[in-house]
Amino acid sequence: MVTRQADPGADPRLQALTSLAGWRQFASELPAVPDLLDADVWQGLDPGKRAVYDDDRIAHHSRLLVVQTPAVRDVVTTGRRLAHMNRSAHYGRSGLIVSGPARTGKTTAITQLGKTIEVIHRRRYPGCGDHIPVVYVTVPPAATPRMIAAEFARFLGIPVTRQANITDVIESVCGVCAGMRTTGILVDEIHNLNIATRTGAEASDTLKYFSERIPATFVLAGINVERAGLLSGPRGEQIAGRYSMVRTGPFPRDAQWVTLVAAIETSLRLHRHQPGSLPGLAGYLHQRTSGMIGSLLWLIRSAAIQAVIDGTEKITRTSMDAIPVDIASQESGHGKGKP
């Protein structure tokens, strides 16, 4: 079956990673880091050019660069090793589970692995524009077997009608993945699979069937997978026997946390920001974010964007005090604690 082509007129920023067009845009993008103009040049910009310059910096701060945390490196290294081991395996392929609390970088880690697999594949096979080396899907809440199959089909651009037989959908997915040289399949939000229920168990069986039929390395990510029941019972034992695990978690308040904050600071493009000031506030930042990488990035990104908008061009403790962190960090009692 031939997959649908992306709409050439569609805004790639609106394409979700769970679509082929969105994933390809993500996997191929190399966001340009804006240069910080000399003070005299910056001050001399006319209003129109200043607006464009500021917009470029705001866009940069909205994403910043991916920080190579130990978890990201571990997932990418382990995933690549498993992909090599699985390349010649006809059965019993090994997979990877990434498990941890929310806001600890699980999605970032597995998407960076997927991006790495995609880049290596396209370097190994020049001119393979129609290949689909990586599939990225998320598990819907209360997922059923049909919902799982539909998520794969949606990514691949396979039409699924209400009358479509689930067996035909599964066969189409397996056929497209085999024909398009899929080698990595990323399944996010795996905690939405509740194998304690009949429907959840059947959905888990569907995912297992895909892993047996598609010659690819499966990478599953979810919140505290061990507690979600995915590894319980006979089905859980089968999963545990085929998958290794990388655990993510909050950073302790130590030298590694300071190094992480310093790495993020180097990505800032602000005219009046004092280098080294954010590492000096490492204790305060840990208190505000509970050591969660997701919350830290949220806070620094927000403060950087605000600094461009209001013209202060720097991040300080006072400016960060005015930025609300995510609700989870606020409810943990660390909203504006002392360092």
Q: What's the short version?
A:
This protein is 51% helix and 8% strand. It has 339 residues and is an alpha/beta fold.
Shape descriptor reads: globular
Multimerization status:
single chain
The helix/strand class is alpha/beta
Question: In whole angstroms, how far apart are the ends?
Answer: 58 Å
Q: Biggest sheet, open or closed, and with what strands and sense? A: 5 strands, parallel
Averaged pLDDT, please?
Answer: 89
User: What series of H and E elements makes up the topology?
Assistant: HHHHEHEHHEHEHEHHHHHH
Percentage of residues in strands: 5-15%
**Spans of 5+ residues with little confidence (pLDDT < 50)?**
1-10
Number of strands: 5
Helix percent band: 40-55%
List the total number of helices.
15
How do the strands line up in the largest sheet? 2-3-4-1-5
| Rg, Å, rounded | 22 Å
Descriptive terms for the model:
single chain; 339 residues; alpha/beta; five-stranded parallel β-sheet; 15 helices; 5 strands; globular; disordered N terminus
What does this structure look like?
With 339 residues, this protein is an alpha/beta fold. Helices cover 51% and strands 8% of the residues. A five-stranded parallel beta sheet has the order 2-3-4-1-5. β3 (184-188), α8 and β4 form a beta-alpha-beta unit. α12 packs across α13. The longest helix is centred in the middle third of the chain and has 19 residues, at 106-124. The N and C termini lie far apart (58 Å).
